[in-house]
Amino acid sequence: MKNNKFLQPIKWSLMMLGALSGIFFIFSFATNIDLGENKASEPAMVIRSITLQDEYSFAGEKLTIEDWDIRERLERELYANVFQHSSTIIAIKRSMRYFPMIEKKLSEHGLPSDLKYIAVAESMLSNAVSPAGAKGVWQLMKPVSEFYGLEISEEVDERYHVEKSTEIACKYLKHLHKRFGNWSMAAAAYNIGETRFKKELDFQRAKSYFDMQLNEETSRYVFRLFAIKAVLEDPEYHGYQLKGNDGYAPIEPTKVISVAKPIPDLGLFAQENNISYRKLKWLNPWLIGKQLTNPLKKEYNIRLKE
Question: pTM for the whole thing?
Answer without folding.
Answer: 0.84
